[in-house]
Amino acid sequence: MGYWLIIAVVMAVLAVVYHRATRSFCFFEKRGIPYVKPVPFLGNLWEVFLRQISFAELAEKLYNVYPESKYVGFFEFSTPLLVIRDLDLIKSITMKNFDHFPNHKMAFNPDVEPLFSKNLFSLCNERWREVRTILTPAFTSSKMKSMFALMRDCAKEYGDYFASLSADQSREFELKDAFTRYTNDVIATCAFGIDVNSMRNPKNTFYVYGREATNFGKSKALRFFAARYFPWLCRLFGIKIFEQKFTDFFKDVIASTIKARDANGIVRPDMIQLMMETRGKLGPGKELTIEEMTAQAFNFFFGGLESVATLVCFAAYMVGIGDEVQKKLQNEIDKVFEDCNGQVTYEAINSMKYLEAVILESLRMFPIALFTDRVCVKPFELPPRVPGAKPYVVQRDDCVWIPIYGIQHDPQYYPEPKKFNPDRFYDDPKQMANCPSFLSFGVGPRMCIGNKFALLQMKVFLFYIFAKCDLAPCAKSCIPLKLETKSFAIMPEDGLWLKIEPRNAKKAMPE
């Protein structure tokens, strides 16, 4: 009797759990919105969790499943949300009606994850506006120009390093490892005022801690999802995305930098300086604490180190496996060296149309953010998804997704979307980068605040690498690329391997 009672209780518990996990699965059917059939507990993410496809492939699949509809239903685990496919509707949500959709969903509990919960991306409403206003001056064109010399010195060091490798040294590199050292050094000097050379000194603390903190392997990815969806579980077991040593390290870096600048009257054109200058000016409750300063600096470091490194690797790889693209880029680089008499300027770098086209095409094909999101704060009526259908009202706290990867791989906007073709951006890179179908840096007021910094960082590095070196496929190169299914980030399955050699063709003029 007891045995059967236990079985009955277990079955009842399982039935309740199953019901709670699937009770929302009729949400879109009741509202006449097309959707992909979900799986209990995992929703529409099941193929990614079972490693059958990459997250990028899932994003594209969802975007293409109902091409006639302005929006489609999607289940993030058991939570229903809308994927917005129509460009005019995306503009309406993110710009014209920003007051209805001002926030991201990515909100972490401060006592679970302080570095993420207090950074600009995660902040909401008025606090987001206050911090955005503080940080915006750090990324103006004048500030970029003042940081250019620091970036140029770092990039030239790396170009010289790779070009100086002797014939008996290994010249086959996994680009992510090698190029992340450059982005680390640029951020260290431009944001933290720390001079390091991570290629010649690979074990420096700033690089080692930065790589450990931003390397989202399987364990950290699971902790990330736990912190986002099950904060109570994280509080119960003391689970954090980042180990305490990383939080302490970056907090100590910020605190010691501020102390040294105050004591010695040091002024630098960077984010830390701007945050320092707000002290005593924002009023009660608005002052940035050392924890908030650390969160903003870490957010800048996290985005600049990992994201920009990934983007510059994809760009270099696509150029390296395409002889015509590489020759055209190197010809433009040689012309700039010649026109500048070897003294490359900020204006000259930013006038390079083909270099910018190469970067924009890389951003189109391999956007770091496959989706972006917005959370509704007051009801908003969407137009009918197709002619003849009923409008749909998005309610408070509902979330919508904007499928960046799907849009940027849609042949309607970019013919032959799987082909790396910088020429599609060449005629007018600035206009193409601002067109509604190019969303790699987001859109509207919550667009990436550091996009100018990221673009300049990429331009300067690619300039000096291809000025000094030829990149070519090697035995480990994977052509065409296959995206890995082990990570939620967009990453190649077997790394990005190329051979890097001193230039065999016309040498760029030395500075």
Automatic annotation (TrEMBL):
Localization recorded for this chain is:
Endoplasmic reticulum membrane; Microsome membrane
Specify the protein's topology with respect to the membrane: Peripheral membrane protein
Arranged from A to Z, the UniProt key words for this protein are: Endoplasmic reticulum, Heme, Iron, Membrane, Metal-binding, Microsome, Monooxygenase, Oxidoreductase
Which Pfam family is an annotated match for this chain, by its short name?
A: p450
- The organism's place on the tree of life at top rank: Eukaryota
The keyword Ion transport is annotated on this UniProt entry: no
Q: Which cofactor does it need?
A: heme
The positions annotated for binding heme are C448
Q: Which InterPro entries match?
A: Cyt_P450, Cyt_P450_CS, Cyt_P450_E_grp-I, Cyt_P450_sf, Insect_CytP450_Detox
- GO terms, molecular function: heme binding; iron ion binding; monooxygenase activity; oxidoreductase activity, acting on paired donors, with incorporation or reduction of molecular oxygen
Provide a GO CC annotation, any one: endoplasmic reticulum membrane
The protein's name: Cytochrome P450
Organism from which the protein derives? Heterotrigona itama
